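Contributing new records

If you add data, match the layout below exactly. Sequence lines come first and carry their own label; structure lines follow with theirs. Keep one chain per record. Anything else will be rejected by the validation script.
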Amino acid sequence: MGHNLWFDAKEKRLYLRARVVLRDGFLEHLMCSKGTKEHEAILATDAIPNQIHTVLLMTGADAGKPVQFFPKFEPPTGTAIAIELMWMRDGKVQKQDARKWIKADKNMPLERDWVFAGSQLYDDTITKKRRYAADEGDLITVANFASAILDLPIESSANDADRAFTTNTEMIPPIGTEVFVALYPRPKPAQKPAAKTSRTP
């Protein structure tokens, strides 16, 4: 599918090639498309958005629906997606859960998984063609965007005064570092068997 995106059929994982573009500041994205929103995203990639969507389906993930703001707020839905980051340092492979690169409100670590909201299609009023909204660059967001492929299933504003997420700078490698991003459905925790109840004869 290209040198920036490929699918591991055995492990059912999507891999993307990206680079670190931001280490310090407020965030609206974990990852954006290259040349779009690097001033508010940690990573940028050349991978094609609709191919990301297609391969996520191949991993077994189900697309839900993007955030809805009107008539009332409804958070995005979809399969929970684990995101693992890999890069080289001193000749050794480093691995990290992507959530470790982000600080949430009150400096707390991000604990929620992203969900496969799936972005949306719309009719371009100028070209009269159907377009995939994530082509605007909203790939993996921490602020709610209806155009996002992956979004957080909570209410998260993109307004400057209300942005709650920042970089966890000490965890992020230098600007320009090549990072391989693995995405796959988060395994559901095993359910405990129901406790047996005893009856007295």
